[in-house]
Amino acid sequence: MTERVILGVWLDVPLRAAFSYLHDSPLPDGTRVKVAFGPREMCGVIDNSIPPPAVATDKLKPILAVLDELPPLPALLLEQVQFAARYYLHPVGQALFTALPTSLREARPVRQADHHVYQLSAQGLARPPAARSTVKTLLWQALQQPLGREALRQLHPQAGSYLKAGLASGDITALPWQPAALRVEGALPLNAQQEAARSSVAAALGSFAAFLLHGITGSGKTEVYLQLIAQVLAAGRQVLVIIPEINLTPQLIDRFARRFPATGIACLHSGLSDGERLQGWLDAWQGRAGIVIGTRLAVFTPLPQLGLVIVDEEHDGSFKQHDGLRYHARDLAVWRAHRQQVPVLLGSATPSLETVANVEAGRYRKLVLDQRAHDGASLPQIGLLDVRRQKLDDGLAPEVIAALRQRLARREMSLVFINRRGYSPVLACTDCGWTSACRHCSARMVLHLSARQLRCHHCGAQQRIPVQCPDCGNPDIKPLGEGTQRLEAALQRLLPEARILRIDRDSTSTKAAWDSIYQRVHSGQVDILVGTQMLAKGHDFGALSLVVVLGSDGGLYSADFRASERLFAQLMQVAGRAGRAGVPGHVVIQTQWPDHPLYLALQQHDFDGFAASQLAERREAGFPPAAYQILLRADAPAYADAEQFLQAVLQQLGAPPDGITVFGPAPALMARLAGRERAQLTLESTARAALHGWLRAELPTIEALARKASRQLRWSLDVDPLEL
Ligand SMILES: Nc1ncnc2c1ncn2[C@@H]1O[C@H](COP(=O)(O)OP(=O)(O)OP(=O)(O)O)[C@@H](O)[C@H]1O
Ligand SMILES: [Zn+2]
Question: Helicase ATP-binding domain: from which residue to which, for each copy (predicted)?
Answer without folding.
Answer: 202-369
